[in-house]
Amino acid sequence: MFIHGFHIKGAVDRETRCKHYNGSNDRVAIKFYCCKMFFPCYQCHAEYGCGKKMVWPTRLFDEPAILCGSCGTTLSIRSYLTCQNACPTCGASFNPGCAMHRHLYFAVAER
């Protein structure tokens, strides 16, 4: 599905929700380091992606790799990790539970 001009594999609605995560504040898509393609979650990447499990290294945390499904802003990883679960552009809330999966996307310590 194309959302805000980006192809989001596994998305089921216009705010990037998927069959795995579809709550009201599930509205980010993540560009995976291994294939540089956007997916709503790690499970969608496992189903529709490249099959690799590579995380973004900390030296690349300034790369735009997060898409706000509400307004289409792309955030750097650093901005996303410090945004306190809301888009800094439009204020739309992000799921705070995603913090439990950050280690699957980014080189950060597990929670």
Task: Summarize the entry for a quick read.
With 111 residues, this protein is of the alpha+beta class.
| Radius of gyration over all CA atoms, rounded | 12 Å
Count of individual beta strands: 6
Q: List unreliable stretches of 5+ residues.
A: none
What is the N-to-C order of secondary-structure elements (H for helix, E for strand)? EEEEHEEH
- Helix percent band: 10-25%
Average pLDDT for all residues: 95
Principal-axes geometry comes out as globular
Oligomer: single chain
Order of strands in the sheet with most strands: 4-3-5-6
Strand proportion, as a percent range, falls in 15-25%
How would a crystallographer describe the biggest sheet? 4 strands, antiparallel
Global structural class: alpha+beta
Helical segment count: 2
The N- to C-terminal Cα distance equals 31 Å
Written account of the structure:
The N and C termini lie far apart (31 Å). It is globular, with a radius of gyration of 12 Å. With 111 residues, the chain is of the alpha+beta class. The strands form two sheets. A four-stranded antiparallel beta sheet has the order 4-3-5-6. Strands 1-2 form a two-stranded antiparallel ribbon. The longest helix is centred in the middle third of the chain and has 7 residues, at 42-48. The chain contains two helices and six strands. It has helices at 42-48, 77-82, and strands at 2-3, 6-7, 28-31, 38-39, 64-68, 74-76.
